[in-house]
Amino acid sequence: MPPHTRSAWFKTLGLLALVLALALATGLLLGHVGLVLALAALGVVAWHYWKLRGVLLRLTARRRIAPPAGDGVWNELDHLLYRGQQEMRDRKRRLIGMLRAYRAVADALPDAVVVVERNSQRIAWFNAAATRLLGLHYPRDIAAPLGERLQPLPIAHWLAAGRNAEPLTDTASPGDPDLRLSLRLIPYSEDLWLLVARDITRLTRLEQMRRDFVANVSHELRTPLTVVHGYLEMLDESGLDPAAQQEWAPMLAEMRRQSQRMTQLVEDLLTLSRLEAQDALVDEAVAMAPLLATLGREAQALSQQRHAITVEDGAGVDLWGSTRELHSAFSNLVGNAVRYTPAGGSIAIGFARAADGGAVLSVRDSGYGIPATHLPRLTERFYRISTSRSRESGGTGLGLAIVKHVLGLHQARLEVTSEVGRGSTFSCHFGPERVRPRGHDSWSEA
Ligand code: ADP
């Protein structure tokens, strides 16, 4: 007990003892000890009830009433209760202030934030930006089913995936079809999920402008390049006198090589633009046996007997996708394997089933290999480990970017493992939904 409270307690006890002593003395004086003591005790009880009533009144009053001054136990109790009440009020005010500040922050956010109840998938709360971006209205949409409110968006499917839901990028806003949104689902507690929608309209527009620009420039470059390339091919040094021939021949050869490289660059850029402009490809059954044979032949033609090339078709299935694009992607991998493997090395093209029911096309080489630090950035446009080696080998720096895009359009992924000095393996993993049965198994060595 704190000293103040203790002294109040003893004071009250002392007062009680004094009253009883006075009652006893008066009783003895009057000759009615029992009666006077009983009256005094009754008075003490009445006084306590009166004090209790005062405390109750102050506790239940709408206004805050400060307890009266005094130093008895009831005043002490009153003071303690008043202090507790005041502390609670302060804490509540602080909490409300914090809550208001958080709400103000959430409302100031340019991104739409929606709190969703996990089990019922109903909307628990949303900020101001959710009205503009998602077309939600307060209070109408509180407790409304999220999937129903954001109907045009493929939300139901996405919510079902829950924790594993991939962000939805570039979807039209249900509130305003001109707005492009990127949506993320963040499970932040056992019962609540956060849906965050970001306005990416400007970004999408800029991205579109970039794509159009690259596509247009590449397209515009194509014709003059074809003309220059054509004339260079026609230029025949044999008409020149020997001295001029010696002087011009290496220059003409270099010009031809460079114009060829530029043509290839433009073609690769156009391919990338074409792939980027598509959300999906026209799918068909991709006959893998002839495709693998073609890849083998292409490798042989590029290698010119400098490498040992094998093709192993162990999957016995076909793929479902675009033959043309898959051929272009696999050709890029085979081309890289030949170009980045010194003479005498080996290249193995393989097609096998994966444990998950899918299939993997892999191109393994015993070439220079790739340092681990470069692996994550390999599929970026124009990313090269050694510019000189890539240029020497006739690379454009766009091959793996094309591979990544083609695989993306097939919901497949590229995996690269490599060891410097020992070689690399590029594997294209296709899901079970991309696998189609083939009539027979085949194995060929190109
Ligand atoms: P490039 O046209 O320059 O070959 P790519 O996009 O096809 O462009 O490849 C990017 C870079 O990755 C290459 O410059 C090369 O450094 C590296 N690379 C690709 N394939 C291999 C490989 N099989 N072995 C070693 N390095 C490779």
UniProtKB/TrEMBL annotation:
Its EC number is 2.7.13.3. Member of the two-component regulatory system PhoR/PhoB involved in the phosphate regulon genes expression. PhoR may function as a membrane-associated protein kinase that phosphorylates PhoB in response to environmental signals. The lineage of its organism: Bacteria, Pseudomonadati, Pseudomonadota, Gammaproteobacteria, Lysobacterales. InterPro entries: BphY/WalK/GraS-like, HATPase_C_sf, HATPase_dom, His_kinase_dom, HisK_dim/P_dom, HisK_dim/P_sf, PAS, PAS-like_dom_sf. This is Phosphate regulon sensor protein PhoR. One of its GO terms (biological process) is phosphate ion transport. GO terms for molecular function: ATP binding; phosphoprotein phosphatase activity; phosphorelay sensor kinase activity. It catalyses: ATP + protein L-histidine = ADP + protein N-phospho-L-histidine. Keywords: ATP-binding, Cell membrane, Kinase, Membrane, Nucleotide-binding, Phosphate transport, Phosphoprotein, Transferase, Transmembrane, Transmembrane helix, Transport, Two-component regulatory system. It comes from Cognatiluteimonas weifangensis.
